[in-house]
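Lab notebook, bench 4. The sequencing result for the construct came back, and we need a structural model before the next group meeting so we can plan mutations. Quick request posted to the team channel:

Model the 3D structure of this chain.
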Amino acid sequence: MDVRFDARVTAIFGPSGSGKTTLLDAIAGLREIASGEIEIGGKTLFSSVRKINLAPQRRNLGYVPQEGALFPHLSVRRNILFGSRRVSRGAAAQSMSMEHVLEILEIGHLLDRSVTELSGGESQRVALARAILSRPQLLLFDEPLAALDIGLKEKILPYLARVRDEFAIPMIYVTHNVTEVLTLADWVLVIRSGRLMAQGLPSETLTSSRAIRAMPEEELENVFTVEFIEADKASGRSRARLSSGDEIFVPYVPTPAQRNIQVRVRADDILIATQRPEGISAANILPGTVRNVEMIEDQSLVRVHAGEIFCVRVTAGAITRLALHEGSAVFLIIKTRSFQLL
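Done. Here's the predicted structure in C-alpha cell form:
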C-alpha cells in the first residue's frame, strides 16, 4: 500500500479488521513489517532495502491508544511530565508549554489526582497532554474514543479539535466512526482488507460508493459547520445558518462562545418530498435538487444539493414512486430533533 500523508489531520477509516491499526503500528515502529519504506519529514524511519528500522523511542512520534495507557502508579502530573522529558524538537516545541496544554485540554485541576480516580474522558485528555508534551513530529491516534460512550465522545471531540487548531503537529487518526472523520480530518483514507479503497476530502470521499460499502448502515451521516444565530429556550430550539445562507432549526443550545458550531443528521433521518409539504411538525423544509441517485448493494442513496450536499437513504420503492433522478426538484424534511449538536 503506497500512502502519503500531507494533510494537517489525515484519518484512516475502515471497518474492524481492515488493517487500520496495523498501518498505524507500522508507522510507530510497534509492528514488524516485511518490506517497504516509512519516511516522515525527510527522515527515514524504516527501509527494508537500506536495512533501516528505528526503534519506537527514536521516531519522535506521539501515540494515543484507545485506553490512554497511563502509568497507574504515577499521579496525573507525573504522567504528563513523563512526556515532557523527551528532547524538544521541531517547530511545535517553540510555541508549547505545559501550562498552555493544560489550559487547552482543561485538566489543570486534575494534576494531583491518581490516574485511577479519572473518568474515561479525563484519562484520554491526560494521555493526549502527555503525547503533545513529548514534542512529536507527528501525533498518532488509534481509535481514542472507541472505548467511550456516546456522551463522552461528544465531550472529547471538541478537545481534539482544539489540539488540531492550536498546535502545529500533524495527526494521523484511526477510526471507524464517520462523525469523527468529518469533524476532525482534512483528508481521509478508506481501507478495507488491507487495501486502499478511496481517498480524498472527507465530505466527498465518505459518501462515495467504495466508502459506503466499508461502513455500517447506521453510520452514514451528514456533518456540517453552521453559524449560530440565536437560541430560543421556550421553543426548545436554536436557529443556525448553513454556509449557503439557508437557515435551519436545531435542538436548543445556549449561545456558544464561538459562532460556528457543528451539527450532524443521519442519512436515514431525512425525508424527501417532490412537493412542499404543509401542516407538518417538522421545522426544516429545505428546497433542493437531486445531484444523483445511486444503488449501492441493497441501499438506495440520493445526494441532494440543498444549500449543502445532503446524503439521504431511501428505499428502492421510494425512488420509483417519486420518480427521482438527476435534476429532480425536491424538498428535504428534517425534524429539529434529528439534528445533533457536536
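Confidence is low (pLDDT under 50) at residues 87-94.
Will bring this to the meeting.
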